[in-house]
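Thanks for the sequence, V.! I ran histidine kinase right away. Repeating your input here for the record:
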Amino acid sequence: MTCGGRGVSTVEGMVGKMSGQARAARARQVFDGFTVLLAIIFIAVAWPTLHLTHKVPAAAAPFIAGFAAFPILLARVNPPLGWAVSAGSALLIAMAVPHQPGNAIPFQVVHILVLFAMVFAVAVRAPIRIVAVVWVATSLLFATTMAQTGDSFAESGFGWPLAITGLVVFGLLIRWVVVSRQALLKSEEETELERARRAILEEKARIARDLHDVVAHHMSMVVVQAQTAPYRISGLSADARAEFESIGTGARAALNEIRGMLGVLRSDGQLPEHAPQPGAADVPALLEGAQRAGVPLTWTVDGSLDIVPETTGLALYRIVQESLANASRHAPGAAVRVHLACGGDLTLNIGNDRPIAVRPGDHSGTSGSGIAGMQTRAAAVGGVLTAGPRPDGGFEVQARLPLTAALTAAGRAGGLGSGS
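Predicted structure:
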């Protein structure tokens, strides 16, 4: 399975999630429209029939009917508030509004339906402690306001509380089903993300294997050719033999570094084994190797490189390595001078003269991705790096890297960017 295929699956999952959100928004709109329709129906029923059940002035009828019908509008937005308005108005109507003779119910049937709907909404959506308060309060409301004649189950004193209890239990069951479904969907999303992550790791491992096969093969061939050239070619001078030996040494070093980098691609997200990383102490060996490779290089070091922290040392090594590579590539044959100084900070200056022969297409003054990578490495350890052409036609790289523990720790947390 390739990362591309898994990427398509991930995009499809994101599209499906967006579609699910759109469906949820549409469902909320439909529900809100339904509650508005119910409120209109309830007010249309409660207002004209209020005089049949209660003795109220005509001016007060729309308000009493509104208290009976309109709390349904809060069923989704704020169920506890809707219940409080409905229950409070029911208690007030039962106590203050006289009802018609022969009517044993202190408030309208519409009011009962809306109050039951709000109890159900609270049971489904509100916190459990609020559900308990609503259940007890509603049971007490019906037990104390309904006529307890004992002629029927609904008027026996415990029939209404029992019905409310059943309604609350049913709402809690619906709530449990919804919560379980949401937990299942979340678990499926996490599983899909984990699968995508594993697919990416598998693809990284495959790329690492392919890179190792290609690079290791060609670099090994370079090493073999460089080491066997003195035996295959007769009449080589001592300088030519030393040149081939330098090529072989550099190729072996490059191959070892590439293998170390590929180990990161092969890792499964856990901390890989810490392979030795170059540091400040390895910079002199790097300079000597470049000099043996034919770069007209001179260098000076003021102070001891042993005090340079590990992270700063790695950044320094990569910056010097990239600078030497740029000088060799863009200014072949030009003299290169390196100056290192360890004081309060670590300062680095690498400059090369005007190139002896500029290759077609080469621009020594052009800033490429290598310079951006060096600046990233310097910034990662709290330092700064500048690079640019000199008035005499040469090129210069200047860097200042801190040696303090605080900035070094910040750099260690930030990580190091790519050097080229």
